[in-house]
Amino acid sequence: MKIRIKLLFMSCVLGTSLLTTSTSVFAKNNVNRLAGQDRYGTSNAIVSQGWTQSSCAILVNSQNFPDAITASPLAKKYNAPILLTDTSSLTNSTKEKLQGLGVKNVFIIGGVGVVSSQVENTLKSMDISVKRICGQDRYETSVNVAKELGTSKGVFIVNGEHYEDALSAAPIAAKLQYPIILVDQNYVSDMVKNYINNQVKTNNTEINVIGGQDVLSNNIVSSLNPTKTYNQSTKYDRNLALINNYKGQLDLSTVYLASDKGFADALSGSVLAGKNGNPIILVGDSNQSSINSYITNNNVNNLTILGGTGVLSNDVVARITGNSNNSDNNTTVAADKVHQELQVYDNLLNDTNWQRNNGIIFYSDGKSTIDNHWIIDIDQDGVYEMLVHHGNCEANLTISVITYNNGNIKIEHLPSDHNYSADYSKSEKVLFTYGGRGGSNYITGYKLENGHCEKVFTAFSNEARYSESEQAKAVYKINEQSVSKKEYEETFKKFGSIDHLK
């Protein structure tokens, strides 16, 4: 019965969202897609569109965004493409692209923990000169990239824990040669303070701070004394506000579209977009109709899609361009897809052999140890995941994430310590798992990226061990760093409304 109720609820939601279609139609033959089989293929397609040869290239980690998102203005300075690599070894496709372009100089953005010495040595063996720009953390790296860029008339300051605002700024920053500087939501590092005080404010440089209260605290924004603040309530609104403000310096005849569910495609495309002053609009699940309105009202003639159909599907593009003319059928197909997913999950809940083979049942008699289950679309991509709370004793309770998609079933067991519940932040697409014992509580946040639950947040507190008069003894940690009780409580506000999974 629980499965059936959830099916009815989600089908209604799908029906409502898919029946809302755009009214302005964009010419289909003016839509171009730059894509490959993966982020490396897409990166190479973007590079081929903009460069036939280049003496210089910027190399960044394909999976780790903090250092990478500062690279676009530097790439534009040297008319260099941004190329992607793995941490430990230079990707073959990237190596071939470097050779094909005739690259002689490479800037590596990030320390050896981000792009290893082995990658650097491979480049040198190819007779390529290498310069590494890095710092003790992402914030210092952003400052060092800015110093390499040189004197500028402006700067963009964004939260370094999220990539969306940086990607919104990237092509504009490339065009204008404004560096992108990273700060924490509640903290500005000394390196950043010194850079702003000594090299930004002294030159009367334009200071643009991008971020609403979901990513930047009011105290941090005011301490930066910005020339202009983009503090709209959502990343999508900030994206369009930024484009609108620089509309006179941009060419809106062509606009690039990139999914907000990953950084690599938008980053790779940001230099190509910045070369001609074209902006990038981030596409999410809730802003497709507003993008349609924007491209119509601003006389956009050409759209370039960054990424393959697995990232931005043809249906999504059709809704944005107003060419989706069969919404009733789309709604039926989507509802049928959800029904199929839920039926598969229902079967798995009753399949003791499958549960035993996949580490959910441990008892030899086949007795189920499933305590609870939830069904939720974690990354809001239209594919629903099933979370199963299970274990063979209280100390071994854990949560497993099961995904059924296109006939394939994937299961991932999340690490836990006396796991007892889960929460979900819809606005940030973060799944939280809770555990603890002896008065201590552990919270871990996960994002679903490329089918894998990537840990993005940790919190720890042991205040339950102490009475109110002994609170000074309590310990609070966020991402392994000790914080005050107030800072601990304030941290969770950036995730917006958090729903408890019941």
TrEMBL record:
| Name of the featured protein | Putative cell wall binding repeat 2-containing protein
Query: Sorted alphabetically, which InterPro entries does this protein's record hold?
Result: Bact_Sporulation_Assoc (IPR051922), Cell_wall-bd_2 (IPR007253)
Q: Does the keyword Signal apply?
A: yes
Q: Which domain of life is it from?
A: Bacteria
Source organism: Clostridium carboxidivorans P7
Signal peptide positions are: 1-27
Entry-linked PANTHER family: GERMINATION-SPECIFIC N-ACETYLMURAMOYL-L-ALANINE AMIDASE (PTHR30032:SF8), N-ACETYLMURAMOYL-L-ALANINE AMIDASE-RELATED (PTHR30032)
Keywords, A to Z? Signal
Keyword flag Signal: yes
